[in-house]
Amino acid sequence: MVTERNDFCQARPFIGNSRTVDIEKLLQKVEIKKVQFVIMHPPYWDIVKFSDNPEDLSNTATLEDFLHSFGNVIDNTTKVLDKNRYCAVVIGDKYANSQIVPLGFHCMNLFTERGFILKAILVKNFDETKGKANKQAIWRYRALASDFYIFKHEYIFVFKKPW
User: Fold this and answer.
1) Is 40 within 8 Å of 88 (Cβ atoms)?
2) Rounded-to-integer distance, Cα 74 and Cα 109, Å
C-alpha cells in the first residue's frame, strides 16, 4: 500500500501491487519526487493467505518465488527513496517440515545484495498476542505434540540507501 499526501497533509491509501505500481506517478500527483523513509511489512510467505489473487506474495508456491517477488517489491519501492535515507522491513521466520525457514534473513540478504547498508537488526519480542487469547498452555502443548516451534519474535531490519 502506498499513501498519498493531500492539501491537509493527511494520508490517503492507494491499493495496488507493490511490485508493479507506478510509485513515481503517484508521487507526482502530490508534487513529491523522492521519499525519506520506506517501511515494509510483507506477508511471511504462505503462513497466512491474504487473498486468492495469484499475484499476492502470500500465494507464491516456493521460497524462491517469494524471494524473487519480494525482490521486485524492493526494486520498485526503493527507487523513490532519496540517497542516504532509510528503509525498514518487518518480517519473521517460518516453521515448516520440522525446521525453521529463516525468512527474515533471506529478506535481509535481498537488500544487501542490492547494495543497501544494514544499519540495525531489531528483534521485536512478543509473548502475549490476541491470537492466543490467553491460552498459551494449549498452544505450547500443540507445539510440543506437533513438533513445531512457537515464534515469539520478529525482526525489524533497517537499511541505508547509499546511492
Assistant:
1) yes
2) 12
Return the closest-CA partner of residue 160 out of 87, 80, 89, 107.
Answer: 87
More confident residue, 26 or 125: 26
**In 3-state terms, what secondary structure has residue 130?**
helix
Check whether 139 has a pLDDT greater than 80: no
CA atoms within 13 A on the CB side of 7: 0
* Residue range 98-117: mean pLDDT, rounded: 96
Q: Are 74 and 111 in contact (CB under 8 A)?
A: yes
Mean pLDDT of the chain: 86
DSSP 8-state secondary structure symbol assigned to residue 132: G
Tell me how far apart the alpha carbons of residues 76 and 99 are, in angstroms, rounded to a whole number. 32
* Average pLDDT, integer, range 142-161: 80
Report the C-alpha gap between 9 and 2 in whole angstroms. Answer: 14
- What is the C-alpha separation between 81 and 105, in angstroms, rounded? 22
157 within 8 A of 87, measured Cβ to Cβ: no
